[in-house]
Specification:
Layout (H helix, E strand, L loop, with lengths): L1 H15 L5 H15 L12 H13 L10 H10 L1
């Protein structure tokens, strides 16, 4: 619900501006799609990604690597890093 409102707000704001935030809307839409369907959390890139990705691999061994099956702190952090 929160993501839907954010996407809608950005889309409305983009209609009145010269440079609509299409990249942000795209990322939020992809995240919403993956959350709704309980997709597996994707690996990260960037600083300290090796630590996060090794934890994700450990979670995958126990089938706890999707948005709803992962420990809440990991999935919340993953959402911020998307």
């Amino acid at each position: 619900m929160i993501l839907t409102r954010a996407i809608d707000s950005l889309a409305r704001a983009g209609q009145t501006s010269r440079s609509p935030p299409t990249a942000i809307i795209s990322v939020l839409s992809r995240l919403k799609y993956e959350l709704e369907r309980d997709h597996k959390i994707k690996e990260f890139s960037g600083k300290d990604s090796d630590v996060w990705n090794s934890t994700l691999k450990e979670l995958a061994e126990t089938s706890c690597d999707s948005w709803y099956s992962a420990p809440w702190l990991y999935s919340e952090t993953a959402m911020v890093l998307c």
